[in-house]
Amino acid sequence: MQPSGIVTLLSDFGLRDPFVGVMKGVILQWFPEAKLVDLSHEIAAQDVLAGAFWLAAAEPWFAPGTVHLAVVDPGVGGQRAALAMRAHGHVFVGPDNGLFELVCRRGAADEVRSIDAERLGFSLPCRTFHGRDLFAPVAALLAANKLPFEELGPLFEPRGRLDWPAADQSLAGWRGQVLLVDRFGNLISNIEPEGALGAEARVRVGTTSIRCAGTYGDVEPGELVAYVGSFGQLEIAVRDGSAAERLGAERGTPIILEGP
C-alpha cells in the first residue's frame, strides 16, 4: 500500500487545551510534508462509542493510503495495548479499546500489530499522553513511508470490545435506539434501513409519531421528520430546531420504525 501522505486526527481532547496542537507538532517533526486533517476533537470525553462511530463513518471518504490517528483513550497507561491496523486500504493507529471495531464491521482487517515502543526506540516520558509520545510518531512514520508496517511489533488479536447496541428487525419494522445526538440536536439511531423510507413508514419515539421524508427541506419549519442520514442511519430532526430538546431524547432512548 502506497501512503497518501494524509493523516487524519480524531480525539476527545477538545480545542481549549493544547493537546491536539502538540500531537500535530510531533507529527510534523517526523513528517513535515504531512497533510493533516481534523476529523473531530469534540468527541465527548471518554466516549469510545461515539469516536468509533464517527471514525467508521468518515474513513471511506479518504484516499487509499490514508493514516487515521484516533485517540479516545480512557485506559491510557493501563493494560490496554497500543495497536496499528491495516484495513480497506487505510492504516489506523490508536488504543485497543474497541475504537476500531466499527471499521472492521465494514470488512475484516488485513493485519493488526501491537506497537512495541521499546523495539522502536520511542521514549515514553509519561503514561498519560500516548497520543503525543507513541501514536503521533508512529502515524507520522507510516504516513511518510519510513517505517514498514511489519516492524511495528508482533501480530495482534484486538481484545478491546465496544458496547454496541444492535437494532432488531422484524416483518413489522425495526426496534432500535438513539445512538448519538449531533450538534444540531438531530437523533442518530442504530437502525440502518435498506434504501429510502417508504411513504407509509412512520417512526415512533415514546408517544410521538413522526412522518418520514427525504430531508429537512421536505417539511415545514418546526416540524419533526425522520429520514435516512448521510451515513446510512435512521435519523430524526426538527426543521430549524432540535429533536433532542423537542422529544427529551438522549442516547438509549427507544426508537421504533414501522412500515416499509
Architecture overview:
The protein is of the alpha+beta class and 260 residues long. The chain has 2 domains: 6-151, S-adenosyl-l-methionine hydroxide adenosyltransferase, N-terminal (Rossmann fold); 168-258, Beta Barrel (Elongation Factor Tu (Ef-tu), domain 3), CATH 2.40.30. 20% of the residues lie in helices and 27% in strands. The protein contains 6 helices and 14 strands. The chain has helices at residues 19-30, 48-58, 101-105, 117-120, 130-143, 243-247, and strands spanning 6-11, 35-40, 67-71, 82-87, 90-95, 111-114, 168-170, 173-181, 187-189, 202-205, 208-211, 224-228, 234-238, 254-258. The strands form 2 sheets. Strands 7, 8, 9, 10, 11, 12, 13 and 14 form an 8-stranded antiparallel β-sheet that branches. It has a 6-stranded mixed β-sheet with strand order 2-1-3-5-4-6. A hairpin with a 2-residue loop joins β10 and β11. α1 packs parallel to α5. The radius of gyration is 20 Å and the shape is elongated.
CATH topological fold name of the largest domain:
Rossmann fold
What summary fits the major beta sheet?
Answer: 8 strands, antiparallel
Which residues sit in consecutive blocks of at least 5 with pLDDT less than 50?
none
Query: Would you tell me the overall average pLDDT?
Result: 94
Number of strands: 14
Q: Structural class, please? A: alpha+beta
CATH architecture of the largest domain: 3-Layer(aba) Sandwich
Following the backbone from N to C, one meets helices and strands in this order, namely EHEHEEEHEHHEEEEEEEHE
Overall domain count: 2
Assess the beta-strand content as a share of residues.
25-35%
Q: What is the overall shape?
A: elongated
The end-to-end span amounts to 42 Å
Task: Name the CATH class of the largest domain.
Answer: Alpha Beta
